[in-house]
C-alpha cells in the first residue's frame, strides 16, 4: 500500500476527500493546502487504495 483516499465528513453529501501517501518512510496527509505527518492514518476508512507492484515476485491468478 503506497497511498489511499478517504472521506472526512458526516456523509457522502457533506465533507471532502483527503489523501494519505506513504512517503520517505512515514504517512503524510494531504488535506487541501495543509500537509502534515499522519501518525495513525485511517487505512480501514479508505475509498480508493493505491498499491505498487513489487517486481521479482511470481504473479498468481
Secondary-structure map with pairings?
Elements: E1 3-11, E2 14-23, E3 26-31, E4 34-37, E5 46-50
Features:
mainly beta; five-stranded antiparallel sheet; 5 strands
Quick take:
The protein is mainly β and 61 residues long. 0% of the residues lie in helices and 56% in strands.
The N- to C-terminal Cα distance equals: 20 Å
Q: Overall 3D geometry?
A: globular
Task: Report on the biggest sheet.
Answer: 5 strands, antiparallel
Low-confidence blocks of residues = none
Strand fraction: over 45%
DSSP summary, beta strand count = 5
Q: Tell me the count of domains.
A: 1
Widest beta sheet: strand line-up: 4-3-2-1-5
Query: Percent of residues in helical segments?
Result: under 10%
Cα radius of gyration in angstroms = 14 Å
SS-derived structural category: mainly beta
Q: How many DSSP H or I helices?
A: 0
Order of helices and strands: EEEEE
Mean pLDDT: 90
Describe the structure.
The protein has strands spanning 3-11, 14-23, 26-31, 34-37, 46-50. By secondary structure, it is mainly beta. The chain has one domain (3-50). It has a five-stranded antiparallel sheet with strand order 4-3-2-1-5, with no helix packed on it. A hairpin with a 2-residue loop joins strand 1 (3-11) and strand 2 (14-23). The chain starts with a strand and ends in an 11-residue tail after the last strand. The mean pLDDT is 90. Residues 1-54 form the USP domain. This is USP domain-containing protein.
